[in-house]
Write a structure and sequence with these properties.
The chain is globular, with a radius of gyration of 22 Å. Helix 4 runs parallel beside helix 5. The protein is α/β, with parallel strands linked by helices and 382 residues long. Helix content is 34%, strand content 17%.
Length: 382
């Protein structure tokens, strides 16, 4: 690689240069890299800051909104004095202060089907820091058509997801969520709230994935989703497989161009959770009544073995991280109720099972903790 580091850059990146996985060759890869961040809100703020600090040579920024006071609780790239400014201009100024060696390319536009391919094709890695389904599907499809990795993140409340979708090497976003949920059924951060530090946790994980992709080191999240539970201080992992019937990246793809994503995401879907998963729920009281009637319900526990030992409902234990490999242990003819500690991991498991063709799957609202509080107080809580 012909690009060289200046003496000032050597001083700035000294802690990188001593890492065997990076060194001078890796730092020159970063300097030569082009990464674009779509969305300069809670996720894009930490992602852009850390990518700039790390020395990514060219950093693209895409956003069409302005800074509002309610943003500042979590969108740490912007200052109080930035209120009313376009987020792109605010972020550009901050990033140039963070690292003057980085070339910042601000684009004050909304990513749409008519411009997505032209905007994204100039970059090596795309960070999806968007906050709506239309843009998530658009970024996924554009990246698949362009042969680019899509570093995905989402947050709401106390929960977050992180993954890397790369249709060349593994599943895409459509393999995880084939159909968008019913319009209005997903609460946004403004409706449901979000813990201010949670986007920082998820956004920095996105930045780490982008850096690994540029450097060609470590194990990427292609084919895996990390679930962040800030309230329970837990990180869980779910493995994903490419859907061979996926219309975008499957064996017989039918999507060969970008579509009208507003129309696509406005179709009727189903009941959804805050993260966009399509599933149905059952309360602990309703489950108790059905079990007392002797109904044949398979309880699936997707927690870890150590949690199962603390308290359980005598369910069939398959930790979430093993579900992709062990799903065939489950009887497709029976109704399945999935539970975890509070309901986050089980919601993800329900979505996965539905994608695998399981039709009668329900998520236990509130998880085993709700069962302890509302049904059986003798069951230990943790």
């Amino acid at each position: 690689m012909s690009i060289e580091l200046s003496s000032a850059e050597r001083d700035r990146y000294a802690r990188h240069l001593v890492l065997p996985e990076i060194g001078e060759e890796g730092q020159r890869k970063l300097k030569n890299a082009r990464v674009v961040v779509v969305g300069l809100g809670g996720l894009g703020s930490p992602a852009a800051l850390y990518l700039a600090a790390a020395g990514v040579g060219t950093l693209g920024l895409v956003d069409d909104e302005v800074v509002e006071l309610s943003n500042l609780q979590r969108q740490v790239i912007h200052f109080s004095s930035s209120q009313g400014m376009p987020k792109v201009r605010s972020a550009e100024a901050r990033l140039r202060e963070v690292n003057p060696h980085v070339q910042v390319e601000g684009m004050q536009v909304r990513l749409r089907a008519v411009n997505a391919l032209d905007l994204l094709k100039k970059y090596d890695v795309v960070i999806d820091a968007s906050d709506n389904l239309e843009t998530r599907y658009l970024i996924n499809d554009a990246c698949a058509l362009l042969g680019l990795p899509d570093v995905y993140g989402s947050v709401v409340g106390f929960e977050g997801h992180v993954s890397v979708f790369d249709a060349r090497k593994g599943p895409c976003y459509r393999c995880l969520y084939p159909r968008p949920p019913e319009p209005g059924s997903i609460r946004t951060c403004s409706e449901a709230g979000v813990l201010g530090v949670l986007p920082g946790m998820v956004g920095t994980l996105q930045a780490a994935e982008a850096l690994k992709l540029v450097l060609g080191v470590g194990e990427s999240l292609i084919g895996r989703v990390v679930l962040v539970d800030a309230l329970g201080a837990r990180f869980d992992e779910m493995r994903l497989q490419k859907d061979q019937e996926c219309p975008l990246c499957g064996t017989r793809p039918s999507i060969r161009a970008l579509i009208d994503y507003e129309a696509f995401c406005s179709h009727k879907g189903g009941t959804t959770n805050l993260m966009g998963s399509v599933f149905s729920e059952i309360s602990v009281q309703h489950l108790k009544q059905r079990l007392e009637k002797g109904e044949s319900i398979l309880l699936l526990d997707v927690r870890e073995p150590y949690e199962y030992r603390v308290a359980n409902l005598s369910g069939h234990l398959i930790p979430l991280g093993q579900l992709a490999d062990r799903a065939e242990e489950l009887d497709r003819s029976r109704e399945i109720v999935v539970y975890c500690h509070h309901g986050s991991r089980s919601a993800f498991a329900v979505q996965f099972l539905k994608n695998q063709g399981f039709e009668r799957v329900l998520n236990l609202t509130g998880g085993i903790d709700a069962w302890s509080r509302e049904v059986d107080p003798s069951l230990p809580r943790y």
